[in-house]
Amino acid sequence: MASNEVRTHTALHVLKGAASKVLGVKWTAGTFVDGSHGRLAIQLNRKPLDEEISRIEAEANMKIKEDAEIEELQLDRVEAGKLWGNSIYDVFPIPAHIMNLKILHIRNWNVNACKELHTKKTGEIGSLRIVKTRYRDTKELLEISFDIFAERS
Ligand SMILES: [Zn+2]
User: Are 140 and 45 in contact (CB under 8 A)?
Assistant: First the structure.
């Protein structure tokens, strides 16, 4: 069984995919993991509705329940760019001298250059609950705080 940190980190990718689907967001501005607690900060130009937050949580849990495969690929930066464009990047840049990228890929959900450890399948996360959101107008940032639970939702 993967550690809480690995499961929580993997949940960040699942949550990001759900937020992209519901809100059309593209850029991750920050991530935080502490045990089974995590926080995702994404760029968004408006305050989301409560209903949208509920949908993000539901979509994330559906993707977990689907037990989708998590692929990790080692790819040349130029090749990765050809496949996925700048979707693989976050707000924080990867130094130009790094030419080989580790890519996390959850098919039709999330693709991201990421060197952290991940679970093999989304089901290993268990389930996820959004505990708090905060929208920061001046920075156009949405912060989503969540907890993960070993049991399925
Ligand atoms: Zn990752």
Answer: yes
- pTM reported for the whole predicted model: 0.94
Q: Six-digit token pair at 93?
A: 């840049």
What is the whole-number distance in angstroms between the Cα of residue 44 and the centre of ligand 1? 21
At 25-37, the pLDDT tens digits run 999 999 999 999 9
Please write the tens of the pLDDT for every residue from 115-151. Answer: 999 999 999 999 999 999 999 999 999 999 999 999 7
Are 14 and 122 spatial neighbours (Cβ–Cβ below 8 Å)? yes
Domains of the chain: 4-149 (3.30.980.10)
Determine the distance separating the centroid of ligand 1 and the alpha carbon of 113, expressed in angstroms: 8
Residues with CB under 5 A from ligand 1 (ion): 104, 114, 116
